[in-house]
C-alpha cells in the first residue's frame, strides 16, 4: 500500500509552510477488534529515511453539549474501564452504525443517554483525540431548545450512568479544576461557554469534517 499525505501549514502561521510529503511505504495490521484496529506504518521522513508509526484506527465519535434555557449543560457520569473510574462527560457515542449521518448519531445518543431531544443543532467543535497515534476524531454538537423524551432500556455501562445539569460557568470551572478530564467533554464545555455566554459563532450541521475517520469503517465494511 502506498499513501501520500501532504503536510500543510495555516496561512496565518508565523512558521514556514512545510512541503514534505509523508509517504506510507508499507503498512501491516497487527490487531483488529470490534471498535478499533492497530496498524504499523513505515513512513518516509524528511531526508529520505523512514520511521515506524503505530496507528490506532477508530470509528470516530460524536458528543452533544445540550444546553437549556438557563444556560445549564447536561453531563453524564459514566464508568470508563481503561481509566478504572467514572468520568463526567457529555452524552456521546461511536459512529459505528453503517452509513448513519453523524447528526443522527448525536440525536440518538442524546436520547439514549440523557432522555433529551432538541430542535436546534449546530456544530460546536471538532477534536482530534490523540493525533500522535490515533485517527480518532470527535465532532461535538451544540443542542438547544430541549425537551424530555423516553430513554430506551440502557445496557452495559449506560445502565449505571447518572445525569446532572451544571451551569456553563460551573462546568468550565470543573474543567480547570481537573474534575472534567474527558477530552471532548472539556473542549465541548469551553466551546459551549464561548458560543452561549460569549456569543461566538458556531457552524451549521453540514459543515465539512476534514478529519472524520474512515479507515476502520472501510476495513469493517470490507
Describe this structure in words.
- This protein is an alpha+beta fold.
- The chain has 2 domains: 3-58, no CATH class; 61-197, Nucleoside Triphosphate Pyrophosphohydrolase.
- It is built from 4 helices and 11 strands.
- It has helices at 102-114, 168-176, 183-197, 215-221, and strands at 3-6, 21-32, 36-44, 50-58, 61-66, 72-80, 85-89, 92-94, 116-128, 137-148, 162-167.
- Strands 1-2-3-4 form a 4-stranded antiparallel β-sheet. Strands 8-5-10-9 form a 4-stranded mixed β-sheet.
- The model is unreliable at 1-9 (pLDDT under 50).
Topology, pairings included?
Layout: E1 3-6, E2 21-32, E3 36-44, E4 50-58, E5 61-66, E6 72-80, E7 85-89, E8 92-94, H1 102-114, E9 116-128, E10 137-148, E11 162-167, H2 168-176, H3 183-197, H4 215-221
Parallel strand pairs: 5-10
Antiparallel strand pairs: 1-2, 2-3, 3-4, 5-8, 6-7, 6-11, 9-10
| Secondary-structure element string | EEEEEEEEHEEEHHH
Q: What is the tally of helical segments?
A: 4
Q: What CATH architecture of the largest domain would you give?
A: Alpha-Beta Complex
List the strand order in the largest sheet: 1-2-3-4
Major sheet size, sense and barrel closure: 4 strands, antiparallel
The CATH homologous superfamily of the largest domain corresponds to: Nucleoside Triphosphate Pyrophosphohydrolase
Q: What is the distance, rounded to the nearest whole angstrom, between the alpha carbons of the first and last residues?
A: 16 Å
Question: How many domains make up the 3D coordinates?
Answer: 2
How much is the average pLDDT?
A: 91
* Overall 3D shape: globular
Radius of gyration: 19 Å
- Which blocks of ≥5 consecutive residues have pLDDT under 50? 1-9
CATH class membership of the largest domain: Alpha Beta
Strand percent estimate: 35-45%
Annotated CATH topology of the largest domain? Nucleoside Triphosphate Pyrophosphohydrolase
Overall structural class, as computed from helix and strand content, comes to alpha+beta
* Helicity level: 10-25%
